[in-house]
Design brief:
globular, about 10% strand, 6-stranded mixed β-sheet, alpha+beta, Butyryl-CoA Dehydrogenase, subunit A, domain 3, homodimer, Butyryl-CoA Dehydrogenase, subunit A, domain 2
Chain lengths: ~675, ~675
Amino acid sequence: MVDAAVRPTKSPTVEATSPAIDVPLVNDLLLGTWADIRRQAREMLKDSAFWRQDGLGMDEHRERVLSQLHLLVENKAVHRAFPKSLGGEEDNGGNISGFEELVVADPSLQIKSGVQWGLFGSAVLQLGTAEHHEKWLPGIMDLSIPGAFAMTEIGHGSDVAAVGTTATYDPETEEFVIHTPFRGATKEYLGNAGLHGVAATVFAQLITNGVNHGVHCFYVPLRGDDGVDLPGIGREDDGLKGGLNGIDNGRLSFDHVRIPRTNLLNKYGDVAADGTYTSAIDSPGRRFFTMLGTLVQGRVSLDGAASWASALGLHIAITYATQRRQFDGVDGHEVVLMDYGKHQRRLLPRLATTYAQIFAHDEFLQKFDGVFSGRTDTPADREDLETLAAALKPLSTWHALDTLQEAREACGGAGFMFENRLVGLRADLDIYVTFEGDNNVLLQLVGKRLLGDYAKQFTGKDAASLAKFAVGMTAGKLFHGAGLRQFGQSVADFGQVSRSVENGLREEQQHELLAERVQQMIADVAGRLRPGAKDKELGARLFNENQAELIEAARAHGELLQWEAFTDAVHRVDDAQTKAVLTWLRDLFGLQLIEKHLAWHLMNGRLSMQRAQAVSSYIDRLCARLRPHALDLVAAFGYEPEHVRAPIASGAEQARQDEARAYYADLAASGDAPIPEKALREAKKR
Amino acid sequence: MVDAAVRPTKSPTVEATSPAIDVPLVNDLLLGTWADIRRQAREMLKDSAFWRQDGLGMDEHRERVLSQLHLLVENKAVHRAFPKSLGGEEDNGGNISGFEELVVADPSLQIKSGVQWGLFGSAVLQLGTAEHHEKWLPGIMDLSIPGAFAMTEIGHGSDVAAVGTTATYDPETEEFVIHTPFRGATKEYLGNAGLHGVAATVFAQLITNGVNHGVHCFYVPLRGDDGVDLPGIGREDDGLKGGLNGIDNGRLSFDHVRIPRTNLLNKYGDVAADGTYTSAIDSPGRRFFTMLGTLVQGRVSLDGAASWASALGLHIAITYATQRRQFDGVDGHEVVLMDYGKHQRRLLPRLATTYAQIFAHDEFLQKFDGVFSGRTDTPADREDLETLAAALKPLSTWHALDTLQEAREACGGAGFMFENRLVGLRADLDIYVTFEGDNNVLLQLVGKRLLGDYAKQFTGKDAASLAKFAVGMTAGKLFHGAGLRQFGQSVADFGQVSRSVENGLREEQQHELLAERVQQMIADVAGRLRPGAKDKELGARLFNENQAELIEAARAHGELLQWEAFTDAVHRVDDAQTKAVLTWLRDLFGLQLIEKHLAWHLMNGRLSMQRAQAVSSYIDRLCARLRPHALDLVAAFGYEPEHVRAPIASGAEQARQDEARAYYADLAASGDAPIPEKALREAKKR
């Protein structure tokens, strides 16, 4: 059967001759822009001092991770983003790249480093000014000042603007009074707050001269030199969590704690000695979002770490699946798990998604680096970066949980053994889906941004403006500026029986289906919200009724971004065989997205029944075609035994299987093998 | 809008007046046939001695659970299934009911009890004969003989028939020699094998006089009275697992371990002193499945325990969602999470599914009790029971993981705190999806059974036999014998624009859609397998290509069973208001199933585009309608504070929210509230 969607354009015979991917080439592609730093980090992490020790209790695990943080300082692994004047490198993209790699050593190590240098340190760096940098950054960098990032409160997670903690200026003493006015305003879930933190960057409502200027960040010492908490500081340990127990999360409350006026991190807003407030940003709303925007790197790094954790999980599960055997095949020998259709269906689409995420992440990281280096730092760039973060982080973190779980189940009981990594990684990454922005809340932000773009571009309801919007809406807008993909095929073209079913699912059609779905869903939601434009109460009700679909549209947008990044990566490959296999993998990614949303495509007339029915069997064929490349595709992640550390992926299973097969072969050869009763009965019948 | 599907038939005004459910009545309905025993178990579990202590390390946790097992003995909580002659009650359904309830105390306690009395003890009871019962059951019952159930091997989990362990009869000494011939034949993941077990029921290939009679079960002492492992016994500790760390799982291997001939549990096959093998069951295959079939209760109890764990998770998340507030609403006050459309969409369909599962489980338990009591114990009943177990256990155990995860995410960071139960329950239940039968393998068994039924009933390809099959295929066959639901509406009837869209999604249509989907999928798979009927290699390839869809068809069968059980339960309710609300909940269950498979229904012409588009908005409306009843519906699970034990569901959040609101109200009343900068700027503009 001619299979246009997966046939490489230049070499039609490649398919038949079973191409092989160039593993080092794909590894380069996956490691991306900061490949050198990633390799350097992985080399460092071969030292077992960085590895998680499974048997440690919470207390010992916390101390081990703290000591590992000191090791990171010694290895100069965590200062890349800091100012050159203080020994840093001002390399934002490289910093995040190296940081993400820590996830394979121990996610607790990754996140505790993130708290110290990515949140606490970044708050001082990004929200503070020169005096603050000189005073505190050296101690933050060398870990002599472990600190907490005190933003979230028990009563306010996603809605940071509404935190209850107050910072009231007292001109008499030129101090701010930091105060927790009710229990719900207690700062909560803060890494380093349970135990190790000696200072915190605290987000509080800045009040001076009777005016609340909104949330600002303050540097608050927690402990004196004697190691005892300062007066007014309340500290509670969060105790055991579902994962990340190498981190001492805790609560902080403040009972009229006084700090010097100059402890306000005053880059975006300042208070003079007499209590006069000034800010270069007039709008309190924009000022707030600018401040929060400087902290986007948390989301950037979670997107990368989650994607690489998925890769590690698939490395383990796919390796095991090519060695473990279960149930006899036609030839009387037991079949390896990876040869079962269902097993391929479980693991290979997730492998394709992981590739897509890693490619999308690198583009995301480039965007981040552009903004934070100042090279491409406009308000529009920052807004795009925020949207990108809010679209990608939810998808990759959910994917990590889904993939690690499927990997664990695909390994059966062995997957449940802690030593095989999957359950531990999953437990640790669980919180990634709700911290640094709850995934659903982030996707809602994306949805609102898409609605905003829609409203801007689509003023009349005529076909011309709709078409203009359709172009503007592609994810490419964010990645590629004006250089958008455009496709001649119109919606009406679909569903024609005269075109072969397969032709309808090529690269161009995949993009069209994915892009138009975003556009149509946003247009649909916008249309349903319109009656509420001038009636606040009706507007709120309508928004609530459409909330789930808006979030789904945002997810579709993120999926489109990932698909485009994967496709761009494939286009960069010159090696024909590698390109062929990666094209199959990209097709698998695209088609499983289309399959997931098949009902939508049918109900919106985007796919004919024939084409829709072809999607699933196409996926099955792609899985079968990718099966021989599965090991190469996980090898391209580049993980070495010191990173994997899972006995089931070490070759032990292969050795056991070989031993069992040799035993039965020897037994048969010896002539001593017992006769199966069934065979005896059949022989007697004859 | 007239909403026929959810309008109660007798009282059309009920909808408008917001009915209230009769909570005790629904509680009775949910607790089911053995409600008294469940209540008795829950009363017992109010004693904190049975509760999990989160902070315990693995070793302490194991000892605590062992001590809790002794407490269960003291409370006479675990002997209901054993013979009356030995102090039991021969009450199989009651036994499982009480056992399942242990999950809310600590899943480790549930599963370790299951190992001791449900697997190890059951093997002796079900596979042994009077002598064995008298000799070992008293010690097993009073826990003086803790034991392991040694079936699974490293190399053979689901494929039990292929285990490598051998039991070779030596007529010279009248002993069996138990032996592990290669590492892959090591018994693995066995509860009680790591530490506490002093004996094991070991499954091994019975070889006598040079013939292998297949897998049989042997009672093998592991330790002498001195507490030291006997010669030839190899024991390894599995160490830390993803959950259930209160259980000492481990490995056992046997180096030519000799046991008396009479240690063969010989109910279904025996070896005489001279080595002659005899069995009442001629066919080795049927004999094997009969032996395994006696051990079905593991699956029964996992189905129940998983359903009740889901209920507990929803109790916690829904309680929290009605107290926690986030983001301001139109009235300026913060909105409780449960009032968000997306939050309802996340929790309420899962609540509906949990209800369906609990109702289906009770019917399943009745079937089990009928077979094991001997009341309805025919080979056909046993086969139906096996199929039921294989269909329901996968769905409910996966649902538990999905629900506990969604519940945890819906509680944000608070959900990740161990004290709030959700992460611990999820980690413990993780293994439920692959033990006692891997879920995918079980569903494949169901699929094969459905294919078998199809082949039996559908000999010609004419419409009459197809219709006959359509009737035979409903899940009701298993539950209701010949008393099947039949519906006049034909497939052709669907898609008519003249019928209102709503009318197309009533109870009858839900059943028709769900039932016909099973039938059609099986027919489709059967058709695609047909060319391989006489060609073994082609047959294997075709089966593999259709494996994923066959498993999906089996899942659809299980969903139908659950839907029917829910519907039967609703029909048993007399109270009109309760019936109305439960009907909405059942509709929500049915419609979310249809939504999940919407593409299939569209591609197979079962739903018109109009009706398909109505499904999602229908679900949204049902969620909104059920929102006011959410707390009542979780209250009906009947969990008390001693069972819930999650601080976030204790009312603490409500107290915090009330305190915060009072603080702001007082501040506003005092006239001292700081003026928001934004308000000041707007005032200046005027």
